[in-house]
Amino acid sequence: MISKDQALTLLEKVLSLTKADMVEAVLEKNRLSLTRFAESKIHQNIDTEETILYLRTARDKKVSVAVTGDISEEGIKSVVARGAAMLEYALPDEKFVSFPPPDSAPVEENSISDGTASFGPDKRAEAVRHIATVGRKGNLEGSGAIRLETKALAVANSLDARRFFVGNSAQISATLSGKDNISGWAIEYNPDASKINVAHIAKTATQKAVASRAAMALPDGQYTVILEPAAVGQLLLLLAFMGFGGKTFVQQRSFMSGKLGQKIAGENFTVIEDPTDPDFKTLPFDYEGVARKKVPLIENGIASGVVYNSYYAGLGGTASTGHALPPNNSYGPYPKCMVVAGRESSIEEMIKNTGKGILITHFWYLNFLNPMRTMVTGTTKDGTFLIENGAIKSAVKNMRTNQSILEAFSNIAAISQERVVYPQYSVLMKVPAMLINNFNLAAEAEEEESKC
Q1: Is 203 exposed, middle or buried (0-12, 13-18, 19+ CB in 10 A)?
Q2: Can you tell me the distance from the alpha carbon of 353 to that of 433, in angstroms, rounded to the nearest whole number?
Q3: What is the distance between the alpha carbons of residues 170 and 194, in angstroms, rounded to a whole number?
Q4: 166 and 287 together in one domain
Q5: Rounded to an integer, what distance in angstroms lies between the CA atom of residue 250 and that of residue 257?
Q6: Are 237 and 184 part of one and the same domain?
Q7: Confidence class of residue 444 from pLDDT cuts 50, 70 and 90?
Q8: Residue 268 DSSP SS3
Q9: Which of 6, 142, 254, 314 has the most CB atoms around its CB within 10 Å?
Q10: SS3 label, residue 209
């Protein structure tokens, strides 16, 4: 992995070759160590590195973005030339003001965990072996992935902004499945791979799969549901995509637009974008070099704020919160480290206090229906269970939901004190379990269920 001196020296060279009014150079180095397994056997074991150099140039309110993976002297000269050529054909953006000036907020520059760095192919193979061994006791086969990521990011611009960070992280997910479409699933994330509890993952997925035998069908209706943390995280992620970013907010395409200071969820629901949470140990600044800031999104049910990069902060008359994505993205800023406030309950207490309800492990293929109403659709997956009289009675066949997320988060009856970090699409979420009333579920057709 590249050092701070190497990265910033390279970026200084890029800046020196560029003649635009303003220049921003971003160097990203990614290393992925990945072990995939299916039918309880490893079928893919890779270790790859990727280098990306982004060059953003501005002149006369014209902005160009050029990208290359070649950081040789010839590659750098080529990307600089392409950036200059693109400016000749670009249209002026009268809303563009400037790249960010230097940000003096101190940030962590090194978050490398030795436990992740040393979690090589042998240790990953041992983890797969353990998952497979536990699964076989229930006549199950295991599939899943062990994913280790190391990222270095350096940012420099002609306004003298300079940033560097390097860190790593790990996650392990496993699905154990058997005859009659039974399956169980578990996932765990940690910046330190050596702290991931492989035994707990294997045991949890196995227990869910074994308990899924003889699943019964339930009719369509509104149910009391207990969402495990992953299911909560999956709903929260789509909520973030639909409304917590400055681009859609400024463009009036966010459910948050015009709602700041208003009640949009239950009083017991609070979510904050908090990159400083020690359980994350992720990038402390964005792709513009601005330190990521703590941003209340919804506080006690009240719409409180969204996240910005420098461009949309300018349009919104505010300051960047440090949430710029790579300069060639089209999505605009969105949260990357969300934390949901926990309460006093637990999953065990929720089950005990439920007369009739459904326990949901996680969802499958959640997708948007109506972003302004926060409507999504998807199916339950890998462990759905009927609760009666305070105990799990039987497995339930997968059911489809067509549900407003904000409506669900307005009907929260209990929230667990314990929270776990759930990763998805490069977003980290520290989430609890939730007991939610009046949640829409419908029976899945048999042929559709078999495809999942």
Answers
A1: middle
A2: 14
A3: 9
A4: no
A5: 7
A6: no
A7: confident
A8: coil
A9: 142
A10: helix
Q: Which residue has the tokens 């199916």?
A: 379
Same domain, 182 and 271: no
Q: No. of H helices and E strands in the chain?
A: 11, 18
**Parent domain of 172:** 4-198
92 and 230 share a domain?
Answer: no
**Residue 414 and residue 434 in contact, taking contact as beta carbons nearer than 8 Å:** yes
Cα-trace Rg, the chain: 24
Residue 145 lies in a domain: yes
Please report the DSSP string for 82-128 in residue order: HHHHHHHHPPP-TT--------------EE--HHHHT--HHHHHHHH
Of the candidates 71, 423, 69, 438, the one whose C-alpha atom is nearest the C-alpha of residue 222 is: 438
Instruction: Count the alpha carbons within 13 Å of 146 in the hemisphere toward its beta carbon.
Output: 33
Is 187's pLDDT higher than 60? yes
DSSP, residue by residue, 387-428? EETTEEEEEB--EEEEEEHHHHTTSEEEEEEEEEEEEETTEE
d(CA 228, CA 236): 13
pLDDT score recorded for residue 446: 60
Q: How far apart are CA 10 and CA 18, in angstroms?
A: 13
Q: Which residue has the tokens 């397994």?
A: 37
Residues 222 and 300: their CA atoms lie apart, in Å, by 24
Distance CA 428, CA 205 (A): 22
Domain count, the chain: 2
pLDDT at 166 over 50: yes
16 burial (CB, 10 Å; 0-12 / 13-18 / 19+) is exposed
Name every residue whose Cβ is closer than 8 Å to that of residue 175 and which is 6 or more positions away in sequence: 142, 143, 144, 183, 184, 185, 205, 382
Alpha helix (H) ranges present in 244-359?
Answer: 246-250, 310-315, 347-352
Which residue reads 């074994």 in tokens? 210
Tell me if 331 sits within 8 A of 245, measured CB to CB. Answer: yes
CA dist 79 and 56 (Å) reads: 10
Tell me which residue has tokens 């790593």. 168
C-alpha–C-alpha distance, residues 307 and 245, integer Å = 5
Q: For residue range 366-421, what is the model confidence (pLDDT) as tens digits?
A: 999 999 999 999 999 999 999 999 999 999 999 999 999 999 999 999 999 999 99
CB 288 within 8 A of CB 310: yes
